[in-house]
Amino acid sequence: QAKRDPEVSRYWQVAGSLLRRFRRLLFIFLSLNFTKMTFLFDNVSEMNGAGNLMDFLDEPFPDVSTYEDFHTIDWLREKSRDTDRHRKITSKSKESLWELIKSLLDAWSGWVVMLLIGLLSGTLAGVIDLAVDWMTDLKEGVCLSAFWYSHEQCCWTSNETTFDDRDKCPQWQKWAELMTGHAEGAGAYVLNYFLYILWALLFSFLAVSLVRVFAPYACGSGIPEIKTILSGFIIRGYLGKWTLLIKTVTLVLAVSSGLSLGKEGPLVHVACCCGNLFCSLFSKYSKNEGKRREVLSAAAAAGVSVAFGAPIGGVLFSLEEVSYYFPLKTLWRSFFAALVAAFTLRSINPFGNSRLVLFYVEYHTPWYMAELVPFILLGVFGGLWGTLFIRANIAWCRRRKTTQLGKYPVLEVIAVTGITALLAYPNPYTRRSTSELISELFNDCGALESSQLCDYVNNPNMSRPVDDIPDRPAGPGVYNALWQLTLALIFKIVITIFTFGMKIPSGLFIPSMAVGAIAGRIVGIAVEQMAYHHHDWIIFKNWCRPGADCVTPGLYAMVGAAACLGGVTRMTVSLVVIMFELTGGLEYIVPLMAAAVTSKWVADAFGKEGIYESHILLNGYPYLDVRDEFTHRTLATDVMRPRRNDPPLAVLTQDSTTVEDVETLIKDTDYNGFPVVVSRESERLIGFVQRRDLTLAIKNARQKQDGVVSSSVVYFTEDAPQLPASNPQPLKLRRILNLSPFTVTDHTPMETVVDIFRKLGLRQCLVTRSGRLLGIITKKDVLRHMAQMMNQDPESIMFN
């Protein structure tokens, strides 16, 4: 075509000539600028390497933004990460139907977790209640028709049980009767006594052995550690699967052994373990420690819900007593989890009375204004008992930690169990389980009651409804019961001090309630008999006429239980609601409120810390209580580090520190993070980088990025620093840098700093003056300063 068309041929010739000239010019250009082009391509390759690294860091590598064991989380950081995650999901939901479905699943994941927590915690609570009921009775005898039946269940199925002897049936035999054929006599009593102690020792030995070998974190109540974890502290394994399994099994064994402890506190720990287990199924919670703690707060509510059959009280307990951060949506979800847990437990019906707890009662007599005086006196007793118990128990636990006693936990448990069983068996009120004791003390004496506490002298001419029996003179059974209850009160007060804190699951709610219920029942009977024999006194004349049902001793027992529990734990609102849900009566709220407030006032007069806060201080956990007041006139410069004569603050520069320098700094120090400054001369603050993130970033960069060596420069700026061509590839770590760390000036009052740490959940804050870094204040520094101001040992705060 070109040969036939001269015009086209000329165009081809011109194009060829231009192409040859362009090649010649390109060759000359490359020849003249070889060195310059070499440097240019080196820079391009370096920039590409940095770009690849940034792409790599944009994808979260394993364990980034996680925390080391026994360290505190950064609440602001976790909140920011969750906001970014939610914003990303919201923007993606507009792209396709699948992304919209994923966003809806993410929104509903919280309610799914609450449902699962409620179902599992309710089921476990029901199983624990059934197992404890059976194993407690196993210490005294066995059901011949079905060995897995408790005493009450065994006699339910018997057709030969009479109403008067409803606790006796041929199918249930005590061990002495089963072995020797004799149910009565000194020999049978001694044999039953011996086997009771033997069973108790066996149960407690199994409990402490399982805890020590398989799950050391399964011991104790768990509430002090739960409070600390919810405040942002990391204790790896405390809410793990092994802890859940062992705590559930050993809780049954410990309660069945007859020790002065309860299962209600450990049930909170069990429920939180369930919450942590289900958090691992959803990345929304497993990868964000702040969101995980919202779930754990709701799980704590579910735990109290199944412990006392009080869903509303459980929510308030979580809000008042254990939670550190409790947003409104957590309140709704806590309510839902507590509801599901209570419904599940009600479906299991472990006590066979269609109630959620063993000691549910209903009273039919109103209280009178004059009774507020004994109610308030019971509140005073509860406050004094709480103070005595806290001081004695903390002294004993401190002795356990600092002496040889702590090295022999198995021997301690065996010794306390042996003493408890030896002293408890002769007294019928200490031999039975504590929950059954509280149930009997709470009960109102009706016409169908056969307890010694209801052995009154009846008027043969009385013809009244069953629920309206008038006050009557006490019979010999009542006076005998009073002596036994007095001995039981002294025994419970002393033995509980040594029991709580041993290396087995041990709750404090039930023992405290038992002490108060015993004292309250004694006071109630005394007031009842005074009203009967001295009804003409001025204090009784207006409201207690002869033949009237004036005083309910069971109500005094309930008020005393609330007072003692409040004195030990310093709970108020949640305590009143829990006790109200136990009784099902609105009209008894005022006596409960009076006793709870009085016990708190009396106990606070001797010390502000409840039992759980005292154990937190004893263990040195970094818990910053929102109820503590700081009124001292100190400044941030008085608390910050470095102090005078201390080495300078360990910092990183923005673009002049090598990988080797960073690794050396990490190796030689144990700080949680490092401030990043412009240069060591100017000390102008750029940001803050976490130690763990720094370690993981360098480790991953060495594995996946070519050219990163010990002499590589680490830079935190947007653009790479100008480096000689012979330098190795630099490492860009701007993504892990917190560009907005919380800062205060050196003249900020410590009162403000403490308030900031409480309300924002800070891990640390930096102290500056006109943008220049002066020092750092950590949560540990704040706690030690507060301890020092209160004339306490600042070195007792052991964790970061």
From TrEMBL:
SMART domains: CBS (SM00116). It is found in: Endosome membrane; Membrane. The chain crosses the membrane at residues 108-132, 193-215, 235-255, 267-283, 295-319, 372-396, 408-425, 481-501, 508-527, 555-580. GO terms for molecular function: antiporter activity; ATP binding; voltage-gated chloride channel activity. CDD domains: CBS_pair_voltage-gated_CLC_euk_bac, ClC_3_like. Keywords: Antiport, ATP-binding, CBS domain, Chloride, Endosome, Ion transport, Membrane, Nucleotide-binding, Repeat, Transmembrane, Transmembrane helix, Transport. Its main location: membrane. SUPFAM superfamilies: CBS-domain pair, Clc chloride channel. One of its GO terms (cellular component) is plasma membrane. It is a multi-pass membrane protein. Signal peptide: none annotated. It comes from the Eukaryota. This is Chloride channel protein. It comes from Astatotilapia calliptera (Eastern happy).
